[in-house]
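User: Could you check the structure of this?
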Amino acid sequence: MPMHATVPLPPLPVLTGAERLARAQALRRRRTVRDFAPTPVPRAVSEACLMAAGNAPSGANQQPWRFVAIADPALKRRIRLAAEEERAFYARRAPEEWLQALAPLGTDADKPVLETAPWLIAVFYQRTGIAADGGKQKRYYPHESTGIACGMLVAALHQAGLATLTHTPSPMAFPNTLLARPCNEVPYLLLVAGHPAAGCRVPDIARLPLQDDASFLA
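Assistant: Sure, the predicted C-alpha cells are below.
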C-alpha cells in the first residue's frame, strides 16, 4: 500500500468503440492558424482551458509552468512590437537552411496576429522554485513538464472550437519585463488563441504517415 495520501480516481467516460475512436481522431483536424478574427472569447473559456493544461503530469508534481493570459489591447500591442524586434533574426542571424524550412509556412517578422486575436497566453517555466525561507528549490524536468502542459492547452483550446498559433520570438527575454515576471521564470512560448478569420487558409502541408513516426511492438 502507498505511504502517501490517496483519493479515488475520477471516473473515466464509458464509451463505445466508435465513440472512443472518434474522440481519439478529433485532434487530427488541428491546424496552426496565422489569420485570426478579433471575435471575443469569454474569459471563462480561457480559464477552463488553462485549468486543463494545469492537469498535465510534471516531474515530482511540481507544476513548474506559469501562464499569463492577456486580453488588454495596449499590452498586446507592446508585446507585438517587442516580438517584431526579431527582424534581426530573419535578416542576419537565421541560417539560410532555417529560412528555407520556414518558407512554406509563410512566417516572417511581422506579427499582427499578436494584437488581433482575443487572447495571447505567455507561458513560462520555473528554472528553480522559491522555498519558504527564500532559498532556491530544485525543479525536476521543468522543460518537459511545461511542454506537456502546453500540448494539453493547445488540445483543450482546439476542443473548445478555437484556433491556436505557437510563437517563440528570438530573442525571448522581453516577456519577463513586459509582464513583470520574477527572475526564476523563463519565457517558454507565446500562444495565440481565438477564432480563425473568415476565409482563413492554412499552408498545404502533409503530416508524416503513421508508419513513419510510430512503431508497434506486439
